[in-house]
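queue> holo job accepted (2-acetamido-2-deoxy-beta-D-glucopyranose)
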Amino acid sequence: MASPAQLCFFLFILVSAAAVVSATDHIVGANKGWNPGINYTLWANNQTFYVGDLISFRYQKTMYNVFEVNQTGYDNCTTEGAVGNWTSGKDFILLNETKRYYFIGGNGQCFNGMKVSVLVHALLSPPSSAATANSSSSAQRIHEVGRFMGLRANVVAIVLGALIWFGSSLI
Ligand SMILES: *[C@@H]1O[C@H](CO)[C@@H](O)[C@H](O)[C@H]1NC(C)=O
Ligand SMILES: *[C@@H]1O[C@H](CO)[C@@H](O)[C@H](O)[C@H]1NC(C)=O
Ligand SMILES: *[C@@H]1O[C@H](CO)[C@@H](O)[C@H](O)[C@H]1NC(C)=O
Ligand SMILES: *[C@@H]1O[C@H](CO)[C@@H](O)[C@H](O)[C@H]1NC(C)=O
Ligand SMILES: *[C@@H]1O[C@H](CO)[C@@H](O)[C@H](O)[C@H]1NC(C)=O
Ligand SMILES: *[C@@H]1O[C@H](CO)[C@@H](O)[C@H](O)[C@H]1NC(C)=O
Ligand SMILES: *[C@@H]1O[C@H](CO)[C@@H](O)[C@H](O)[C@H]1NC(C)=O
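queue> job finished
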């Protein structure tokens, strides 16, 4: 029989798995990080952002920084009226709203390409008659539903592993 300690551990695994679902960390520029001369539009176009995800900026903190601005700040590379600023060199920013976010580098680095905008989607977007007619949009929606239910491969693997471990402890 499973002991109470084993049951607690099993629950802990499940809760941890649920936590993994809610926090995808999008590392800006992937292994290139936050540096001048990179087209971050290409990077942003290659992934999908959902509410609750993190975006993280990795850079040399003595040289660069991060400002969250509005569209005007993004288009004109100005940090006046910035919504937020980060300087740690490894900044994790929670994307907690369904909107387009704009981030730029200060000290003129925005003009050297250090600017990125990301569109954050709701986990379950309301159906729109135009969008549902498109198969690509349907695929997107299925992905969102699957994600909402926690059906992501890494999570499934963790849960399956826990179930197998738990099952074997009953024998
Ligand atoms: C970055 O790539 C996008 C998409 O191909 C393109 O529209 C844009 O002009 C590029 N930006 C720069 C600064 O090269
Ligand atoms: C897009 O993402 C895939 C998988 O994460 C990666 O292999 C590929 O290099 C990326 N392409 C660009 C242009 O960043
Ligand atoms: C942004 O720059 C454009 C031209 O570069 C200018 O016409 C516009 O007034 C600027 N907007 C703000 C809010 O500074
Ligand atoms: C962005 O913020 C600046 C400064 O607060 C403001 O003047 C400008 O109108 C804002 N632009 C938009 C598109 O909200
Ligand atoms: C950065 O943000 C802090 C508040 O978090 C603010 O006090 C400070 O003035 C900001 N710095 C700049 C350069 O905008
Ligand atoms: C998102 O986070 C920001 C900064 O922490 C906060 O000001 C804002 O109220 C939050 N929005 C929601 C919808 O929770
Ligand atoms: C649906 O797809 C067609 C082309 O396949 C495109 O022209 C149209 O803009 C798309 N509509 C939406 C709402 O995405």
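queue> The helical segments are 4-21, 40-45, 71-76, 129-132, 135-148, 153-170.
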